[in-house]
Amino acid sequence: MNILLLDNRDSFTYNIVNLIRKFNNHNLEVISVDDINFQKIAVFDKIIFSPGPETPEPEGVMKNILDKYARSKSIFGICLGYQAIAQYYGAKLYNIETVCHGIQKYIYVKNPTDRIFSGIPPVFKAGLYHSWAVSSKSFPPELRISARSSDNIIMAFSHVSLDICGVQFHPESYMTPSGKQILYNWLKE
After folding, report:
1. What is this structure's pTM?
2. Distance between the two ends of the chain, CA-based, in angstroms?
3. Tens digits of per-residue pLDDT, 15-70?
4. E strand or H helix at 85
5. Which residue of 5, 20, 82, 162 is most buried, as measured by CB atoms within 10 A?
6. Cβ neighbours of residue 80 under 8 Å, at least 6 residues apart?
7. Could you report the per-residue pLDDT of 56-101, keeping only the tens digit for each?
8. How far apart are CA 107 and CA 157, in angstroms?
9. What CA–CA distance (Å, rounded) separates 82 from 102?
10. What are the backbone dihedrals phi and psi of residue 83, each rounded to the nearest 5 degrees, phi first?
11. What count of other Cβ atoms lies within 10 Å of the Cβ of residue 121?
């Protein structure tokens, strides 16, 4: 399986790489958002949008990848990548009152049939590093909420018909003990 990890200039990118390399039979390539070659993306089976700083660019690389590959490739967004997917489908972001940088919170699985949560307890701890969140008020019908935090912020979603999902929390963080299993669940199909 060929996996593209789109690096959105984030220090956590290589933590994701190290987690994925623990699983066998995957050809993983990390490409910076600054160096992306859209013709080369065709060879990948799965795409991960990494975390990154600030908020997603409305007309940026992740939007262009979704335009071209949302219907044909498995896509997983983490933090900024998750927000980019949500925005692509029409969700709005808002600045949260209390910034969560290096905070661990309880996550409540709302849709246990989502494959990324297979074998994951209905309540688990996860590491958060964000100051923006996806609004429930403008949540698009194409996406299904899969998990929320203890303060009711949307923490995960999946597309209702396409192989696209995302998480606001960081599965690669040591503060997310179930993170390795979540990534494995996404990769195993």
Report:
1. 0.95
2. 10
3. 999 999 988 778 999 999 999 988 889 999 999 999 998 888 878 999 999 999 99
4. helix 80-88
5. 82
6. 8, 10, 49, 50, 51, 52, 53, 54, 55, 56
7. 887 899 999 999 999 999 999 999 999 999 999 999 999 888 888 8
8. 13
9. 18
10. -65, -40
11. 12
Span 117-123, average pLDDT: 97
- Has 79 been annotated as catalytic? yes
Domains in the chain with CATH codes: 2-187 (3.40.50.880)
CB-CB contact of 83 with 62 (8 Å) = no
In the chain, the amino acid numbered 130 is H
**Selected catalytic residue, list 100, 130, 165, 170:** 170
Structure tokens at 34: 């600054």
The residue annotated as part of the active site, out of 54, 57, 172, 189, is 172
Picking from 65, 1, 124, the residue whose alpha carbon sits closest to that of residue 156 is 124
User: Which entry of 26, 59, 79, 189 is annotated as an active-site residue?
Assistant: 79
Q: At 180, phi and psi to the nearest 5?
A: -60, -45
Residue 88 DSSP SS3? helix
Query: Could you tell me the two tokens for 155?
Result: 């923490």
Element (H, E) at 13: helix 13-20
Q: CA 93 → CA 36, 126, 134, distances in Å?
A: 25, 20, 5
Strand partners, 30: 5
Sign of the alpha-carbon dihedral angle for 2, 159, 33, 129? negative
